[in-house]
Each structure stands twice: as C-alpha cells, then as structure tokens.
# Entry
Amino acid sequence: MSIGVEYLNSLLEENRDEGRFRCKREMFTDPRLFDLEMKHIFEGNWLYLAHESQIPQNNDYITLQMGRQPVFIARNKDGVLNAFLNACSHRGAMLCRHKRGNKSSYTCPFHGWTFNNS
# Structure
C-alpha cells in the first residue's frame, strides 16, 4: 500500500497568483489515504478525546471513537478518569451501548463478564 509523493502532490492544486488552493475529492475518498491517516494520526499518536468536564460525576462515562477503535472514558468511585476499549476482552462485544451514562460496572452481553470502571 505504498503511496508516492507524486500521487499526493497530484491531489493538491496550488495557485498562489490567483489565491486558489484546492484538494481533489479523491483525497477524502481514497481508502489508501484513509488507512494512512488511521495508522499515522489516529493509531500512532496521543489523541484528545474529551475534557474532564464531560464526565463530571463519579461513575459517569462517555463513549467515543478513537480512529477505528470504540472507546469509553469513565470516572471511577474515587473520581479518577480511566479510558478503555469499548469491547469485551473475551469476544469483543460492545460494553457501553449508550453515548453517556452513569454506572460503576459494565457487563458483556455475550457471556456476562463484568468489568469495573477502574
């Protein structure tokens, strides 16, 4: 999946004299570029996911996407924030099905494994 510099440059239109700077639509639809963005931006760097004010109370949680990964951030009973993949470690079933809420434990709907928010 190698993408050359020539290809990337072909996606940009830069005309300083006319003040025109454009990207071809292909830049936003090419699956190879999407995979590169996921790998080098979303899966290979620290990401801002939320501000602590979005999870104000103990046992509050919020679900988000981190690149291709579903995650949730939860504030435990001691007020400490923790981030988790939103998937059971056994079979990958989603643990949090709502955008936000308040709970101290998460139960896998597949086999009933339970996880706390610490």
In short: The mean pLDDT is 93. The first strand starts at residue 12 and ends at 15. The radius of gyration is 20 Å.
